[in-house]
Each structure stands twice: as C-alpha cells, then as structure tokens.
C-alpha cells in the first residue's frame, strides 16, 4: 500500500475528502513506519518550498500515490517532532478502516517543466511550468509579464509523452495565487484549469503519472 521513501502530501483541511480543495499543501517523504506511527520528513510548502514546523497535536490530512498508482488518503495527528540530521515528524498511524482509496486523481501534482503560452489582459507571454496536475499548474512569470490573482487567462501547454507524441492543452484558466520573486526563486503563478474536458484532463493526468513513474524508476536506480 505504501513504500518507504515515497512522497507524501499533507494539508490541514480535515473536513474535506478531496486533498486538492485546500489552498496550501505540504510535501513530505515517508521515512519509516511501525504498527502505530509513521515517520515523515519535515513538510515543506509545495509552492514556496519553505519547511513548516508542525506542532504536536496538530490534525492533518495525508495523501499519497501507492505502489498500485492509486491515491490513498487518511486523517492523522502529529505526535512529536524529531531533531536530527533530517528533521522529521512522528504522526499517528490510523486503523485500516480509516484509510480511503481515492478515485479522483486529478490533484496528483508532479514537478515538471513544460512549455506554456499565456494570453491574459496584458501582453501575451511564453514561459515554462514549475509543476502540473490534472487540475492546474504553477508557472514562472517572466519579469515583464503581468498577472493578477483571480484573473482569467487563456493558456496553452505542450506535454511530451513517453511514446514520443505531443499532447496539447488549450483552455481558460484562473490565476489563484501569485508568488513574488524571492532570493532563489522567480516570480510564479498558480493556475486552475477551467472549461477543460474530461478527455483533456485525463491526458494531463496520464502525463503526470508517466513523469511520476519515470522519477520513481530513476530513484530506484540511484539506490541500487
């Protein structure tokens, strides 16, 4: 059902069954497991990359992609924090009946750089993505480009598939969050896809899982 070293995601909205409904998500990694607890790497904001200090007693919603490529989700509580070379959290392991195998997979997000073109209220521009999911993407905003939160734009993305073909997505999108330039990070914008057909969404999801599988295979080769 899970694999040590796999990427796990957390958020704090425990009242929803859909992890992507929460605006801020955190990325972590499963380090160890026993009958009662999981040990995970200190989570980091998935958009800013900044580590977050979760206090003991904090309720979280956890989800990850299992070895069978399905998405598993459960509610948990932070039990303690471990200090060491790799800062980590101990979280409660729920009973088996509390786990949920989630059918919707459009929120599985992968870090990937694909070519993008954006047409908004100001001058059109081309750029690349930082990450992509079936529900949206984050892209780099060039220095002279302008985007405003909640602005609606037209976006085109080009996805190189494993079989050598190219899949193109052209749809409207809403700018949900704009992150200003930081010391080592360019200005970025988080986009939600609008008016996208299920066929188009499935093509994006397929690309995400191909990239995730390729990254997992590469990591296994490095370990061996």
From TrEMBL:
Q: Which UniProt keywords apply?
A: Bacterial flagellum, c-di-GMP, Nucleotide-binding
* Molecular-function GO term, any one: cyclic-di-GMP binding
Domain (PilZ): give its ranges.
103-210
One Pfam entry name: PilZNR
In what residue span(s) does the Type III secretion system flagellar brake protein YcgR PilZN domain sit? 20-94
Query: Which InterPro entries would you find in this protein's record?
Result: PilZ_domain, Split_barrel_FMN-bd, T3SS_YcgR_PilZN
Q: Which domain of life is it from?
A: Bacteria
Name of the protein described by the UniProt record:
Pilus assembly protein PilZ
